[in-house]
Automatic annotation (TrEMBL):
<dbReference type="GO" id="GO:0000160">
    <property type="term" value="P:phosphorelay signal transduction system"/>
</dbReference>
<dbReference type="Pfam" id="PF01590">
    <property type="entry name" value="GAF"/>
</dbReference>
<dbReference type="InterPro" id="IPR003018">
    <property type="entry name" value="GAF"/>
</dbReference>
<dbReference type="InterPro" id="IPR029016">
    <property type="entry name" value="GAF-like_dom_sf"/>
</dbReference>
<protein>
    <submittedName>
        <fullName>Transcriptional regulator</fullName>
    </submittedName>
</protein>
<keyword id="KW-0238">DNA-binding</keyword>
<dbReference type="GO" id="GO:0006355">
    <property type="term" value="P:regulation of DNA-templated transcription"/>
</dbReference>
<dbReference type="InterPro" id="IPR001867">
    <property type="entry name" value="OmpR/PhoB-type_DNA-bd"/>
</dbReference>
<feature type="region of interest" description="Disordered">
    <location>
        <begin position="432"/>
        <end position="461"/>
    </location>
</feature>
<dbReference type="GO" id="GO:0003677">
    <property type="term" value="F:DNA binding"/>
</dbReference>
<feature type="compositionally biased region" description="Gly residues">
    <location>
        <begin position="441"/>
        <end position="451"/>
    </location>
</feature>
<feature type="domain" description="OmpR/PhoB-type">
    <location>
        <begin position="260"/>
        <end position="326"/>
    </location>
</feature>
Amino acid sequence: MVPNRTSVLSPSVEAQLTDAWVALEPGADPVERVRALRRAHETFTTVGTVPRPVRSVVAESWRRSARAGVGPDGAASVELTGGDLGAYRAEHPLARVMPLFRELLGGFAADGEHLLAVCDAHGRLLWVEGDPATRRRADGMNFVPGACWSETEVGTNAPGTAVAVDRPVQVFAAEHFIRRVQPWTCAAAPVHDPRTGRVLGAVDITGGHGLAHPHSLGFVHAVARAAEAQLALLAPSRRARDTLLLSALGRDEAEVVLPGRRLRLSRRHSEILVLLSRHPEGLTGDELLCALYAQESVTPVTLRAELARLRRLLGPGLLASRPYRLTAAVEPDATVVERRLDAGALMAAAQAYTGPLLPSSQAPAIVRLRDRLAQGLRTALIAHRDPDLLADWAHAPWGEDDVEVWRALAAVRPTAPVRARLAALEAELTAPAGRAAARSGGSGSGSGSGSGATYLQRPPA
């Protein structure tokens, strides 16, 4: 069992109690489950079919393992030793959060006769620490620093599978693909680069079958999230000296950081710079006119005047013409959110989202970008069912009237205040005014709730 300190993680754990990523549902008999899994494993390795009660995540992993040519009697190979291992570990980004891993998981591993393990993005073990007797037993299956525990090398296992599917996962007993690993149970969660969303590796807890508990998965997941937060503090974004930073989320007037100075742009210049940052190849004058103006009779002369003013504001050499384009690299905050979302780093994406893109803009192209970004993020939040992330969105100005998010939050955190807020929103939707507002679609609100409600803009940081 995980120690009492994990009780603080209960909201995240609750969201996973019925999740297929947890090895044993509450009330399951672990002894009987082991017997059933051994029979299922034997069936799969002999005839290739996966019978019940094998979870879908394990069945898919078994199939990947078989396609990779892993045999059930195989073993992990040690790829790095001695000075090569030491040099690789010293340069790895996760070396910076090893003190955090030891503080949060090290004592639990030692006290519970478990192991704390950390692997890189390829499933290669970098650190294995914990109870000395347990370490000696783990040495027998090459669960040691420098050994490769990727799915393609040793089949289904928590650290290797976690980096393969980019999800926290538990692997219980005979769910392991290789037979010599089946006396063990482990839980692992991927750790992401907070800037790029790239998977850096995974943190794992390995030990006996007592780890087959929802709390162990919630615990290791929370540790991984803490590591990502620590990395964000330790390693601020690195960028080339001439890269422009563009902040346009949650603010009507974008801010651009140039070498040695910071500018706040007008609303029209904000729209132009956002659009040009999305098109490094450039946009023609006609393309910019269509992107910026809806049913307005705006002449090319007006647009050229705006661009001339923007060119003087940015300084020489940054805004070229024919086509109009920026000559320096740009890092928009909206693109950071998109990149993290595409990489599956939902928490990092939600943290970077400080509000809708230029919320008051009615430029057609900005409206499309704003709605696409907000809808993509909220859809991922609803699907992921993380109560903390849903609560953050629901209590933000752009999410306070988002009935779909409140419904998702009520499903995973049905507290009295959440249920009351959801009931109030649903009552508004059933009223005539609510139905009219819902039909209006709420375009440009950034909430995507369909309620038509506006929100108060969060003040710029």
